[in-house]
Amino acid sequence: MNDALASALLKLDRADKHITDVKGYVEAFNGGRDYVAFTEYDADTDTTPIKLRFDALPDRFTACAAADAIQNMRSALDHLAWQVHLRYRAAGNPPLGMKKVSFGIYEGRDEYIKPASQELIDRIGGLDWAVFLDNVKPYRGGNKLLFSLNLANNLDKHRDILDIGTIPTGILVYHSPAAPAANVALNGFRRWPIQNEITIATYPGKVEVKPNVQTSFDIVLGDIEGIDNESVAETLNKLLGATRSVVSVAAATFF
User: Fold this and answer.
1) How far apart are CA 51 and CA 67, in angstroms?
2) What is the pLDDT of residues 126-167, one digit of tens each?
3) Largest Cα span, the chain
4) CB 68 within 8 A of CB 22
């Protein structure tokens, strides 16, 4: 691989560092937080939820570090497209302005195959680039991870900080005295800012119990198509792997 992709690879290496930061925030949350389990009868639903109240929340920079990683990955793809275009220009083809050259990720295949989209793809890198993108499938319903990457990047840049939340990864509930089985709900997700109470299980009717709860938690992403409610650290690693794969195949194809 020559120096043409040095900037794209550097962006990916920087993304990896941000992912390490995210993992640190997750570990600090699980290592430093404590919680109290309690029940609270709800007369409206005639149920008795078991709730956890936290004394600490995930670091507020967790979402920012995740977004920084995503931005570096997305930027690496644009750097790749620019280098492909420079190669295409060097072969005597007409140049495009920098603002017109990017790694397009589309709302769906119909948008991808539109004449205007295909014309721009051809002007960026010619037939070889078009064939390469046909294999990558950079659109909703094609390469799901790249589409989620693009969506998350746009949300963070133009709308709001990425949503994150906490979710139980395993729950053991002991009852004193004995009580009917509770319906355990592994859906403790909360939008940012994260609330300090979540419901993890529900008893039918009014039940007098003192729950002893043992559980662990992960920090997850929310409201992002394809990666919502998934572990933020694991998801970022998947996105990084998908992006590295595109850059690696492009390196072998074009450089």
Assistant:
1) 30
2) 999 999 999 999 999 999 999 999 999 998 887 777 877 777
3) 82
4) no
